[in-house]
Protein backbone atom coordinates (compact mmCIF):
# COMPACT_ATOMS: atom_id res chain seq x y z
CA UNK A 1 0.00 0.00 0.00
CA UNK A 2 1.33 3.47 -0.84
CA UNK A 3 -1.32 5.22 1.24
CA UNK A 4 -0.04 6.91 4.37
CA UNK A 5 -2.14 6.44 7.49
CA UNK A 6 -1.61 8.66 10.52
CA UNK A 7 -2.70 7.38 13.92
CA UNK A 8 -2.83 9.98 16.69
CA UNK A 9 -2.19 8.20 19.98
CA UNK A 10 0.16 5.33 20.79
CA UNK A 11 -1.90 3.84 23.61
CA UNK A 12 -3.34 0.35 23.50
CA UNK A 13 -5.83 0.84 20.66
CA UNK A 14 -3.57 3.01 18.54
CA UNK A 15 -0.68 0.57 18.84
CA UNK A 16 -2.85 -2.44 17.99
CA UNK A 17 -4.38 -0.70 14.96
CA UNK A 18 -0.90 0.29 13.76
CA UNK A 19 0.14 -3.36 13.96
CA UNK A 20 -2.94 -4.55 12.07
CA UNK A 21 -2.46 -1.97 9.32
CA UNK A 22 1.28 -2.54 9.16
CA UNK A 23 0.77 -6.27 8.72
CA UNK A 24 -1.39 -5.46 5.70
CA UNK A 25 1.29 -3.33 4.06
CA UNK A 26 0.06 0.16 4.90
CA UNK A 27 2.51 2.97 5.55
CA UNK A 28 1.59 3.92 9.14
CA UNK A 29 2.90 6.78 11.26
CA UNK A 30 1.88 6.90 14.93
CA UNK A 31 2.12 10.19 16.83
CA UNK A 32 2.05 10.30 20.63
CA UNK A 33 2.22 13.38 22.86
CA UNK A 34 3.93 11.49 25.72
CA UNK A 35 7.50 10.23 25.82
CA UNK A 36 7.94 6.57 24.90
CA UNK A 37 6.18 4.77 27.81
CA UNK A 38 8.59 1.84 27.44
CA UNK A 39 11.36 4.18 28.58
CA UNK A 40 9.53 6.68 30.77
CA UNK A 41 7.47 4.15 32.73
CA UNK A 42 3.93 4.58 34.02
CA UNK A 43 2.87 7.68 35.89
CA UNK A 44 2.55 6.97 39.60
CA UNK A 45 -0.95 5.85 40.57
CA UNK A 46 -2.35 5.87 37.01
CA UNK A 47 -2.19 2.23 35.95
CA UNK A 48 -5.72 0.87 36.56
CA UNK A 49 -4.84 -2.75 35.87
CA UNK A 50 -6.57 -4.14 32.83
CA UNK A 51 -8.79 -7.19 32.66
CA UNK A 52 -8.29 -8.68 29.21
CA UNK A 53 -10.99 -11.15 28.22
CA UNK A 54 -12.31 -12.92 25.13
CA UNK A 55 -12.88 -9.84 22.97
CA UNK A 56 -9.40 -8.50 23.56
CA UNK A 57 -7.78 -11.90 23.19
CA UNK A 58 -9.56 -12.41 19.87
CA UNK A 59 -7.94 -9.23 18.54
CA UNK A 60 -4.52 -10.12 19.97
CA UNK A 61 -4.77 -13.57 18.39
CA UNK A 62 -5.39 -11.92 15.02
CA UNK A 63 -1.96 -10.25 15.19
CA UNK A 64 -0.17 -13.20 16.78
CA UNK A 65 0.24 -11.67 20.24
CA UNK A 66 -2.22 -13.64 22.37
CA UNK A 67 0.39 -15.95 23.91
CA UNK A 68 2.84 -13.09 24.60
CA UNK A 69 0.14 -11.16 26.44
CA UNK A 70 -1.21 -14.11 28.40
CA UNK A 71 2.33 -14.85 29.60
CA UNK A 72 2.29 -11.43 31.25
CA UNK A 73 -1.14 -11.84 32.84
CA UNK A 74 -2.79 -13.66 35.71
CA UNK A 75 -6.08 -15.52 35.32
CA UNK A 76 -8.83 -14.48 37.73
CA UNK A 77 -11.70 -16.97 37.79
CA UNK A 78 -14.08 -14.98 39.96
CA UNK A 79 -14.71 -12.27 42.53
CA UNK A 80 -13.57 -12.58 46.12
CA UNK A 81 -15.97 -10.53 48.23
CA UNK A 82 -14.53 -9.09 51.45
CA UNK A 83 -17.13 -8.15 54.06
CA UNK A 84 -16.75 -5.38 56.63
CA UNK A 85 -16.03 -8.03 59.27
CA UNK A 86 -13.22 -9.58 57.23
CA UNK A 87 -15.09 -12.63 55.93
CA UNK A 88 -14.53 -13.78 52.34
CA UNK A 89 -16.91 -15.24 49.75
CA UNK A 90 -15.81 -16.41 46.30
CA UNK A 91 -18.24 -15.88 43.40
CA UNK A 92 -17.11 -17.63 40.17
CA UNK A 93 -17.45 -15.78 36.89
CA UNK A 94 -18.46 -18.82 34.86
CA UNK A 95 -20.74 -21.77 35.44
CA UNK A 96 -17.85 -24.25 35.18
CA UNK A 97 -15.62 -22.16 37.43
CA UNK A 98 -12.77 -22.41 34.91
CA UNK A 99 -13.09 -19.36 32.70
CA UNK A 100 -11.84 -16.02 33.88
CA UNK A 101 -10.42 -12.64 32.97
CA UNK A 102 -6.73 -11.83 32.80
CA UNK A 103 -5.15 -9.19 35.02
CA UNK A 104 -2.33 -7.40 33.22
CA UNK A 105 -0.45 -4.15 33.67
CA UNK A 106 -1.51 -1.46 31.20
CA UNK A 107 2.15 -0.55 30.75
CA UNK A 108 3.15 -4.15 30.04
CA UNK A 109 0.45 -4.56 27.42
CA UNK A 110 1.24 -1.22 25.80
CA UNK A 111 4.91 -2.21 25.55
CA UNK A 112 4.07 -5.53 23.86
CA UNK A 113 1.89 -3.75 21.29
CA UNK A 114 4.41 -0.97 20.60
CA UNK A 115 7.20 -3.51 20.13
CA UNK A 116 5.06 -5.46 17.66
CA UNK A 117 4.16 -2.32 15.68
CA UNK A 118 7.73 -1.04 15.62
CA UNK A 119 9.05 -4.31 14.14
CA UNK A 120 6.97 -3.83 10.99
CA UNK A 121 8.82 -2.09 8.14
CA UNK A 122 5.95 0.23 7.26
CA UNK A 123 5.27 1.50 10.81
CA UNK A 124 7.03 4.44 12.45
CA UNK A 125 6.50 5.71 16.00
CA UNK A 126 6.89 9.39 16.89
CA UNK A 127 6.85 10.24 20.59
CA UNK A 128 6.65 13.69 22.20
CA UNK A 129 4.55 14.89 19.26
CA UNK A 130 1.57 16.88 20.52
CA UNK A 131 -1.17 17.58 17.96
CA UNK A 132 -1.76 21.34 17.76
CA UNK A 133 -3.76 21.73 14.53
CA UNK A 134 -5.81 19.49 12.25
CA UNK A 135 -7.52 20.33 8.95
CA UNK A 136 -10.16 17.63 8.46
CA UNK A 137 -10.77 18.38 4.78
CA UNK A 138 -7.21 18.19 3.46
CA UNK A 139 -5.97 15.93 6.29
CA UNK A 140 -3.01 18.00 7.34
CA UNK A 141 -1.75 18.15 10.91
CA UNK A 142 0.76 20.15 12.91
CA UNK A 143 2.59 18.73 15.90
CA UNK A 144 4.67 20.39 18.57
CA UNK A 145 7.82 18.25 18.94
CA UNK A 146 11.18 18.65 20.68
CA UNK A 147 12.72 19.67 17.35
CA UNK A 148 10.02 22.28 16.70
CA UNK A 149 6.80 22.29 14.70
CA UNK A 150 6.22 19.24 12.49
CA UNK A 151 3.71 19.32 9.62
CA UNK A 152 2.18 16.05 8.40
CA UNK A 153 -0.18 15.12 5.58
CA UNK A 154 -1.97 11.77 5.46
CA UNK A 155 -4.42 9.87 3.27
CA UNK A 156 -6.36 8.78 6.36
CA UNK A 157 -6.25 9.89 9.99
CA UNK A 158 -7.39 7.83 12.97
CA UNK A 159 -7.85 9.54 16.32
CA UNK A 160 -6.82 7.06 19.03
CA UNK A 161 -5.86 9.81 21.45
CA UNK A 162 -8.06 8.93 24.40
CA UNK A 163 -10.93 10.41 26.36
CA UNK A 164 -9.74 13.99 25.86
CA UNK A 165 -9.05 13.50 22.15
CA UNK A 166 -7.69 16.45 20.19
CA UNK A 167 -8.86 14.81 16.95
CA UNK A 168 -12.39 14.64 18.34
CA UNK A 169 -12.17 18.26 19.41
CA UNK A 170 -11.50 19.21 15.78
CA UNK A 171 -14.53 17.18 14.68
CA UNK A 172 -16.73 18.90 17.26
CA UNK A 173 -16.60 22.05 15.15
CA UNK A 174 -18.62 20.33 12.44
CA UNK A 175 -22.36 20.96 12.22
CA UNK A 176 -24.28 17.89 13.41
CA UNK A 177 -21.54 16.51 15.64
CA UNK A 178 -23.06 15.44 18.98
CA UNK A 179 -20.90 15.11 22.07
CA UNK A 180 -21.45 14.44 25.76
CA UNK A 181 -19.03 14.01 28.63
CA UNK A 182 -20.45 12.74 31.91
CA UNK A 183 -18.33 12.58 35.04
CA UNK A 184 -19.20 9.94 37.60
CA UNK A 185 -19.84 11.23 41.11
CA UNK A 186 -16.96 8.97 42.20
CA UNK A 187 -13.22 9.26 41.62
CA UNK A 188 -10.41 6.76 42.03
CA UNK A 189 -7.04 6.43 43.75
CA UNK A 190 -4.57 3.57 43.46
CA UNK A 191 -2.78 1.91 46.37
CA UNK A 192 -0.52 -1.13 46.73
CA UNK A 193 -0.81 -4.38 48.67
CA UNK A 194 2.77 -5.68 48.79
CA UNK A 195 3.92 -9.28 48.85
CA UNK A 196 4.16 -11.00 52.23
CA UNK A 197 7.25 -13.17 52.73
CA UNK A 198 7.74 -13.23 48.96
CA UNK A 199 4.23 -14.42 48.14
CA UNK A 200 0.81 -12.96 47.39
CA UNK A 201 -0.98 -11.52 50.41
CA UNK A 202 -4.33 -12.55 48.86
CA UNK A 203 -5.55 -15.22 46.46
CA UNK A 204 -4.09 -14.22 43.03
CA UNK A 205 -6.78 -16.21 41.23
CA UNK A 206 -9.53 -13.72 42.04
CA UNK A 207 -10.48 -10.09 41.58
CA UNK A 208 -10.91 -8.88 45.16
CA UNK A 209 -13.76 -6.52 46.03
CA UNK A 210 -14.53 -4.70 49.26
CA UNK A 211 -18.14 -3.55 48.53
CA UNK A 212 -19.41 -0.92 50.95
CA UNK A 213 -22.69 0.28 49.45
CA UNK A 214 -21.87 3.79 48.29
CA UNK A 215 -18.22 2.98 47.54
CA UNK A 216 -15.76 0.13 47.15
CA UNK A 217 -12.18 -0.96 46.79
CA UNK A 218 -10.92 -3.57 44.34
CA UNK A 219 -7.54 -5.29 44.02
CA UNK A 220 -5.98 -7.07 41.02
CA UNK A 221 -2.85 -9.26 41.16
CA UNK A 222 0.48 -8.44 39.50
CA UNK A 223 3.26 -10.78 38.40
CA UNK A 224 5.62 -9.34 41.02
CA UNK A 225 3.35 -10.79 43.76
CA UNK A 226 1.82 -7.42 44.63
CA UNK A 227 -1.77 -6.28 44.18
CA UNK A 228 -2.85 -2.98 42.70
CA UNK A 229 -5.75 -1.80 44.85
CA UNK A 230 -8.07 0.92 43.60
CA UNK A 231 -10.43 2.98 45.71
CA UNK A 232 -13.67 4.11 44.08
CA UNK A 233 -14.98 6.72 46.51
CA UNK A 234 -17.34 9.69 46.16
CA UNK A 235 -15.65 12.98 45.37
CA UNK A 236 -17.58 14.79 48.12
CA UNK A 237 -19.72 13.93 51.15
CA UNK A 238 -19.43 11.12 53.71
CA UNK A 239 -16.66 8.62 53.02
CA UNK A 240 -15.32 10.79 50.18
CA UNK A 241 -11.86 11.86 49.06
CA UNK A 242 -12.79 15.36 50.19
CA UNK A 243 -13.67 14.17 53.70
CA UNK A 244 -10.77 11.71 54.05
CA UNK A 245 -8.12 14.25 53.21
CA UNK A 246 -5.01 13.15 55.11
CA UNK A 247 -3.02 9.89 55.27
CA UNK A 248 -3.83 9.60 58.96
CA UNK A 249 -7.56 9.87 58.26
CA UNK A 250 -7.16 7.27 55.52
CA UNK A 251 -5.56 4.78 57.91
CA UNK A 252 -8.34 5.22 60.47
CA UNK A 253 -10.97 4.83 57.77
CA UNK A 254 -9.30 1.64 56.51
CA UNK A 255 -9.07 0.22 60.01
CA UNK A 256 -12.82 0.74 60.39
CA UNK A 257 -14.01 -0.21 56.89
CA UNK A 258 -11.36 -2.46 55.31
CA UNK A 259 -9.77 -4.06 58.39
CA UNK A 260 -8.40 -7.16 56.61
CA UNK A 261 -6.83 -5.03 53.87
CA UNK A 262 -5.50 -2.37 56.25
CA UNK A 263 -3.21 -4.82 57.99
CA UNK A 264 -1.74 -5.82 54.61
CA UNK A 265 -0.90 -2.24 53.53
CA UNK A 266 2.14 -0.94 55.45
CA UNK A 267 2.65 1.86 52.90
CA UNK A 268 -0.97 3.03 52.92
CA UNK A 269 -0.21 6.50 54.28
CA UNK A 270 2.53 7.16 51.73
CA UNK A 271 0.47 5.85 48.79
CA UNK A 272 -2.54 7.89 49.89
CA UNK A 273 -0.44 11.06 50.13
CA UNK A 274 1.49 10.70 46.87
CA UNK A 275 -0.91 9.01 44.46
CA UNK A 276 -3.31 11.32 42.62
CA UNK A 277 -7.09 11.20 42.60
CA UNK A 278 -8.33 10.38 39.09
CA UNK A 279 -11.62 11.22 37.42
CA UNK A 280 -14.06 8.68 35.95
CA UNK A 281 -16.06 9.72 32.92
CA UNK A 282 -18.15 8.46 30.04
CA UNK A 283 -17.76 10.00 26.58
CA UNK A 284 -20.37 9.61 23.85
CA UNK A 285 -20.22 11.23 20.44
CA UNK A 286 -21.59 10.94 16.93
CA UNK A 287 -20.62 10.58 14.15
CA UNK A 288 -17.30 8.84 14.74
CA UNK A 289 -16.05 9.76 11.27
CA UNK A 290 -15.93 12.50 8.70
CA UNK A 291 -14.47 11.74 5.29
CA UNK A 292 -11.18 9.91 5.83
CA UNK A 293 -10.87 10.87 9.49
CA UNK A 294 -12.28 8.66 12.25
CA UNK A 295 -12.18 8.06 15.98
CA UNK A 296 -11.43 4.78 17.72
CA UNK A 297 -11.22 3.47 21.28
CA UNK A 298 -11.60 5.96 24.13
CA UNK A 299 -11.58 8.87 21.71
CA UNK A 300 -14.94 7.62 20.44
CA UNK A 301 -16.38 5.99 23.57
CA UNK A 302 -14.51 6.42 26.85
CA UNK A 303 -16.20 4.32 29.53
CA UNK A 304 -15.85 3.68 33.25
CA UNK A 305 -13.64 0.67 34.13
CA UNK A 306 -16.16 -1.43 36.04
CA UNK A 307 -16.43 -4.23 33.50
CA UNK A 308 -12.77 -4.11 32.52
CA UNK A 309 -13.95 -3.63 28.93
CA UNK A 310 -12.29 -0.37 27.88
CA UNK A 311 -9.34 -2.01 26.15
CA UNK A 312 -11.43 -4.97 24.99
CA UNK A 313 -13.95 -2.65 23.32
CA UNK A 314 -11.18 -0.63 21.69
CA UNK A 315 -9.60 -3.79 20.34
CA UNK A 316 -12.97 -4.84 18.88
CA UNK A 317 -13.08 -1.44 17.16
CA UNK A 318 -9.78 -2.33 15.47
CA UNK A 319 -11.14 -5.67 14.26
CA UNK A 320 -14.22 -4.00 12.76
CA UNK A 321 -12.30 -1.16 11.13
CA UNK A 322 -9.93 -3.61 9.43
CA UNK A 323 -12.83 -5.86 8.38
CA UNK A 324 -14.62 -2.94 6.73
CA UNK A 325 -11.44 -1.70 5.08
CA UNK A 326 -10.95 -5.11 3.51
CA UNK A 327 -14.63 -5.42 2.60
CA UNK A 328 -14.46 -2.07 0.79
CA UNK A 329 -11.19 -2.90 -0.99
CA UNK A 330 -9.20 -0.21 0.83
CA UNK A 331 -11.68 2.57 0.06
CA UNK A 332 -11.47 4.59 3.26
CA UNK A 333 -14.63 6.68 3.22
CA UNK A 334 -17.24 3.90 2.89
CA UNK A 335 -15.14 1.68 5.16
CA UNK A 336 -15.06 4.27 7.94
CA UNK A 337 -18.77 5.00 7.45
CA UNK A 338 -19.62 1.32 7.92
CA UNK A 339 -17.21 0.91 10.83
CA UNK A 340 -18.71 3.87 12.70
CA UNK A 341 -22.29 2.80 12.00
CA UNK A 342 -21.66 -0.72 13.33
CA UNK A 343 -19.54 0.17 16.36
CA UNK A 344 -21.34 3.27 17.68
CA UNK A 345 -24.26 1.29 19.23
CA UNK A 346 -21.75 -1.11 20.78
CA UNK A 347 -19.85 1.76 22.40
CA UNK A 348 -23.05 3.15 23.90
CA UNK A 349 -24.13 -0.27 25.15
CA UNK A 350 -20.88 -1.12 26.96
CA UNK A 351 -20.90 2.33 28.57
CA UNK A 352 -24.31 1.53 30.08
CA UNK A 353 -23.23 -1.97 31.08
CA UNK A 354 -20.14 -0.62 32.85
CA UNK A 355 -22.19 1.83 34.91
CA UNK A 356 -24.61 -0.96 35.84
CA UNK A 357 -21.74 -3.17 36.95
CA UNK A 358 -20.46 -0.43 39.27
CA UNK A 359 -23.69 -0.60 41.24
CA UNK A 360 -23.52 -4.39 41.25
CA UNK A 361 -19.90 -4.50 42.45
CA UNK A 362 -20.16 -1.90 45.20
CA UNK A 363 -23.55 -2.94 46.59
CA UNK A 364 -25.60 -5.73 45.00
CA UNK A 365 -23.03 -8.51 45.45
CA UNK A 366 -23.73 -8.39 49.19
CA UNK A 367 -27.48 -8.92 48.92
CA UNK A 368 -29.28 -12.23 49.40
CA UNK A 369 -31.42 -11.66 46.30
CA UNK A 370 -28.34 -11.07 44.12
CA UNK A 371 -26.58 -14.18 45.39
CA UNK A 372 -29.72 -16.26 44.85
CA UNK A 373 -30.16 -14.97 41.29
CA UNK A 374 -26.44 -15.40 40.53
CA UNK A 375 -26.52 -19.03 41.73
CA UNK A 376 -29.71 -19.73 39.79
CA UNK A 377 -28.25 -18.31 36.58
CA UNK A 378 -25.11 -20.43 36.92
CA UNK A 379 -27.28 -23.52 37.46
CA UNK A 380 -29.38 -22.67 34.40
CA UNK A 381 -26.25 -22.21 32.31
CA UNK A 382 -24.91 -25.59 33.42
CA UNK A 383 -28.23 -27.18 32.52
CA UNK A 384 -28.94 -25.32 29.28
CA UNK A 385 -25.46 -24.45 28.01
CA UNK A 386 -25.33 -21.60 25.51
CA UNK A 387 -29.11 -21.34 25.53
CA UNK A 388 -28.76 -19.47 28.82
CA UNK A 389 -25.78 -17.17 29.37
CA UNK A 390 -25.28 -14.73 32.20
CA UNK A 391 -24.67 -11.06 31.49
CA UNK A 392 -21.10 -11.41 32.71
CA UNK A 393 -20.40 -14.39 30.46
CA UNK A 394 -21.76 -12.59 27.40
CA UNK A 395 -19.67 -9.51 28.15
CA UNK A 396 -16.43 -11.25 29.10
CA UNK A 397 -16.44 -14.71 27.53
CA UNK A 398 -18.07 -14.13 24.16
CA UNK A 399 -18.10 -11.74 21.22
CA UNK A 400 -21.88 -11.26 21.35
CA UNK A 401 -22.42 -7.61 20.31
CA UNK A 402 -22.66 -5.47 23.43
CA UNK A 403 -25.96 -3.98 22.23
CA UNK A 404 -27.59 -7.43 22.17
CA UNK A 405 -26.65 -8.36 25.73
CA UNK A 406 -29.15 -6.42 27.81
CA UNK A 407 -32.23 -7.44 25.75
CA UNK A 408 -31.07 -11.06 26.03
CA UNK A 409 -30.61 -10.72 29.81
CA UNK A 410 -34.12 -9.30 30.23
CA UNK A 411 -35.64 -12.23 28.34
CA UNK A 412 -33.60 -14.79 30.23
CA UNK A 413 -34.15 -13.31 33.67
CA UNK A 414 -37.86 -13.87 33.35
CA UNK A 415 -36.98 -17.56 33.45
CA UNK A 416 -34.29 -17.09 36.12
CA UNK A 417 -36.60 -15.03 38.31
CA UNK A 418 -39.25 -17.69 38.26
CA UNK A 419 -36.67 -20.37 39.06
CA UNK A 420 -35.23 -18.30 41.91
CA UNK A 421 -38.69 -17.63 43.36
CA UNK A 422 -39.53 -21.33 43.18
CA UNK A 423 -36.23 -22.18 44.85
CA UNK A 424 -36.71 -19.66 47.66
CA UNK A 425 -40.30 -20.80 48.17
CA UNK A 426 -39.08 -24.37 48.40
CA UNK A 427 -36.48 -23.42 51.01
CA UNK A 428 -39.11 -21.51 52.97
CA UNK A 429 -41.45 -24.51 52.87
CA UNK A 430 -38.70 -26.86 54.04
CA UNK A 431 -37.94 -24.49 56.91
CA UNK A 432 -41.62 -24.31 57.83
CA UNK A 433 -41.96 -28.09 57.66
CA UNK A 434 -38.92 -28.54 59.84
CA UNK A 435 -40.34 -26.20 62.46
CA UNK A 436 -43.67 -28.10 62.41
CA UNK A 437 -41.82 -31.33 63.07
Give a description of the structure:
- The protein is an alpha/beta fold and 437 residues long.
- Among the domains are: 4-43 and 65-71 and 105-180 and 281-358, 3-Layer(bba) Sandwich (FAD/NAD(P)-binding domain); 367-436, no CATH class.
- The protein contains 15 helices and 19 strands.
- The strands form 4 sheets. It has a 7-stranded mixed beta sheet.
- Helix 1 packs parallel to helix 5, helix 1 runs parallel beside helix 11 and helix 3 (54-62) crosses helix 11 (310-327).
- The chain is globular, with a radius of gyration of 23 Å.
- The relative contact order is 0.14.
Sum this structure up briefly.
The protein has helices at residues 12-23, 37-40, 54-62, 66-70, 106-118, 166-171, 247-257, 259-262, 268-274, 298-301, 310-327, 332-362, 368-384, 391-396, 402-436; strands at 4-8, 27-31, 50-52, 74-76, 78-82, 88-92, 101-104, 123-126, 130-135, 140-145, 148-153, 156-159, 178-193, 207-211, 216-221, 227-234, 278-286, 289-290, 293-295. With 437 residues, it is of the alpha/beta class.
Secondary structure elements and pairings:
Layout: E1 4-8, H1 12-23, E2 27-31, H2 37-40, E3 50-52, H3 54-62, H4 66-70, E4 74-76, E5 78-82, E6 88-92, E7 101-104, H5 106-118, E8 123-126, E9 130-135, E10 140-145, E11 148-153, E12 156-159, H6 166-171, E13 178-193, E14 207-211, E15 216-221, E16 227-234, H7 247-257, H8 259-262, H9 268-274, E17 278-286, E18 289-290, E19 293-295, H10 298-301, H11 310-327, H12 332-362, H13 368-384, H14 391-396, H15 402-436
Parallel strand pairs: 1-2, 1-12, 2-8, 5-14, 12-19
Antiparallel strand pairs: 3-7, 4-7, 5-6, 9-10, 10-11, 13-16, 13-17, 14-15, 15-16, 18-19
Helix pairs in contact: 1-5, 1-11, 3-11, 7-9, 11-12, 12-15, 13-15
Amino acid sequence: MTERVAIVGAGLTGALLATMLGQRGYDVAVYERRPDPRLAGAERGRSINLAISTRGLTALQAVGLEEDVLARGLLMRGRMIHTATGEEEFQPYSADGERGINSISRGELNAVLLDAAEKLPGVSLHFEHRLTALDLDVRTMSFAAPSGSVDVEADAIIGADGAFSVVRRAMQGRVGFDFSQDYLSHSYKELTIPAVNGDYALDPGALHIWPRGASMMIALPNLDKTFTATLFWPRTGPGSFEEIATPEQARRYFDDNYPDASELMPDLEEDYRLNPVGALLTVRCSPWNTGRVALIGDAAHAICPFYGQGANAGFEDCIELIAQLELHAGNWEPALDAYARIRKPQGDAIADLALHNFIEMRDSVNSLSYRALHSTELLLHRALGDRYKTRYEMVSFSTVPYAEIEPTVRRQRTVAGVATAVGLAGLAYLGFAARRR
